[in-house]
Specification:
Layout (H helix, E strand, L loop, with lengths): L1 H16 L28 E12 L2 E15 L2 E14 L2 E6 L3 E7 L7 E10 L15 E12 L2 E12 L2 E14 L2 E11 L4 E14 L2 E6 L2 E2 L7 E10 L1
């Protein structure tokens, strides 16, 4: 119900300000908040994303800053890497350090300019973060996923479905998002869920992304925890540059 309400608000916003805006098909945002976008980078282009996130729940505050690099080998194949730095304060016991590094590949299974883009991705997460201080998972993780982006003029529907294999445990992850495009802005409503042997997590994330020019975007999202044992709320801010 929460995600449907957010989509309705975004759609009403577009209706209110849509007059005078020339309709144009859009590729959509380059980076979502808790989900992965299906778009690969163009050949020989580099995308850099600087991302900061903060989550708060009773007795625990956590923040993470991530440098995400994505490089297009061809128009349908990209490689990527993520370098996170984390900070946690649990009941006054604060510490910080390197998180788990990630390395991945994404390939578009349909032409990159298709109205319905389908991509496959795979990531390896290395246990470089200190598990004892909750800065890492303490085991190598393999994460294959299927990603879609369905473009309908000013609307883009995003979808993710994937698995995580780590230390003999399997986690299922899925989510969807609706993006509503209004001029230089995209209004987004995401729903992301994961289910594993340790816990189940569901987050709803309303957000907005500003595109001041084609190769630059700034995003601000507000994740809301919908299940027990996850942070009640958070903030995600990110900037994406393409060269």
């Amino acid at each position: 119900m929460l995600s449907l309400s957010m989509v309705t608000v975004a759609a009403l916003g577009v209706t209110a300000i849509g007059d005078g805006v020339d309709p144009e098909p859009s590729r959509g945002v380059q980076e979502l908040f808790l989900l992965d976008a299906a778009y690969p980078q163009e050949a020989r282009s580099l995308q850099i994303t600087l991302r900061g996130e903060y989550f708060d729940e009773e007795g625990l505050r956590a923040a993470e800053g991530t440098l995400q690099l994505e490089y297009g080998i061809t128009n349908r194949l990209q490689i990527e890497a993520g370098i996170p730095l984390g900070w946690r304060d649990e009941d006054g016991d604060a510490h910080s350090g390197l998180g788990d590094l990630s390395f991945g590949v994404l390939v578009a299974l349909t032409p990159e300019d298709s109205q319905l883009l389908i991509s496959a991705s795979a990531q390896i997460v290395a246990p470089t973060g200190d598990e004892r201080r909750d800065l890492g998972e303490g085991a190598v993780e393999f994460e294959p996923a299927l990603l879609i982006a369905w473009r309908l003029d000013r609307f883009v529907v995003h979808g993710n479905a994937g698995l995580g294999f780590s230390g003999g445990e399997t986690t299922f992850e899925a989510g969807g998002a609706v993006e509503v495009i209004a001029g230089d802005f995209s209004f987004i409503a995401e729903l992301a869920a994961s289910s594993g042997p340790r816990e189940d997590e569901v987050f709803a994330t309303p957000g907005v992304v500003w595109h001041p020019c084609p190769d630059l975007e700034f995003g601000l999202g507000a994740p809301i925890g919908l299940t027990n044992g996850v942070p009640d709320w958070g903030v995600i801010a990110q900037a994406t540059f393409e060269f």
